[in-house]
C-alpha cells in the first residue's frame, strides 16, 4: 500500500472551520484552503490509483480504507451521531468531491472514477445516500449578497 489515509481523515477535525458561516464568499476561500491543506495527499492518492495495474481495485481499496478509518475514528457504539454524520457528509460533498472532480488534465478520468467509487463506498460504510456535484454548481447555489444585506 503506497498511500496513507490517516492524515486525510484529519480533515474532519477541521470541519468546524470549513462549515462555519458557509456562504458564497467563505466557500471560495475555504475551498482554496482545503486544496492547499489536503490537495497534495488527494493528488498522491489519485496518482497511486492511476499508476496501479488494476485501477478499479486500487480505487476500491483506497476508498474502503478511507471510509472505514473515518467510521472507526468517529463511531461510538457502532454508530455516528446525526449532527456529526451531517458534518462529515457536508465535508465530503462541499470539499472532497469537488476537489476530486475538478479538471486534472490526464488524470481527470481517474479522479472522477475515484470520486464515484469513494461516494459508493462512503454511502455503504456510513449508511448514507450522498451524491456530489462540481465546485461551480455548489458555488452558484449560494445566495449572493444584495446591497450587503443578505
Per-chain topology:
Layout: H1 6-9, H2 15-19, H3 24-51, H4 55-74, H5 82-101, H6 108-126, H7 135-140
Helix pairs in contact: 3-4, 3-5, 4-6, 5-6
Characterize the overall form. globular
Strand content: under 5%
Percent helix range = 55-70%
In angstroms, what is the radius of gyration?
16 Å
Number of DSSP-assigned strands: 0
- Structural class comes to mainly alpha
Mean pLDDT reading: 90
Specify the biggest β-sheet: none
Low-confidence stretches: none
**End-to-end span in angstroms?**
48 Å
Q: How many DSSP H or I helices?
A: 7
Explain what the structure shows.
By secondary structure, this protein is an all-alpha fold. The protein has one domain. It has seven helices and no strands. It has helices at residues 6-9, 15-19, 24-51, 55-74, 82-101, 108-126, 135-140. α3 packs across α5 and α5 packs antiparallel against α6 (108-126). The chain is globular and about 45 Å long. The model has no long low-confidence stretch (mean pLDDT 90).
Amino acid at each position: 500500500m503506497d498511500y496513507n489515509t490517516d492524515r486525510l481523515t484529519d480533515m474532519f477535525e477541521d470541519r468546524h472551520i470549513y462549515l462555519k458561516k458557509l456562504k458564497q464568499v467563505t466557500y471560495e476561500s475555504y475551498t482554496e484552503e482545503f486544496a492547499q491543506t489536503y490537495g497534495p495527499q488527494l493528488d498522491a492518492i489519485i496518482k497511486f490509483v492511476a499508476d496501479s495495474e488494476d485501477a478499479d481495485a486500487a480505487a476500491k481499496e483506497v476508498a474502503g480504507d478511507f471510509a472505514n478509518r473515518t467510521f472507526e475514528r468517529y463511531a461510538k457504539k457502532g454508530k455516528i451521531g446525526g449532527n456529526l454524520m451531517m458534518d462529515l457528509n457536508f465535508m465530503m460533498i462541499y470539499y472532497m468531491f469537488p476537489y476530486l472532480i475538478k479538471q486534472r488534465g490526464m488524470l481527470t478520468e481517474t479522479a472522477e472514477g475515484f470520486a464515484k467509487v469513494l461516494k459508493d463506498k462512503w454511502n455503504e460504510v456510513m449508511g448514507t445516500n450522498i451524491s456530489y456535484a462540481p465546485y461551480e454548481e455548489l458555488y452558484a447555489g449560494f445566495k449572493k449578497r444584495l446591497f450587503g444585506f443578505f
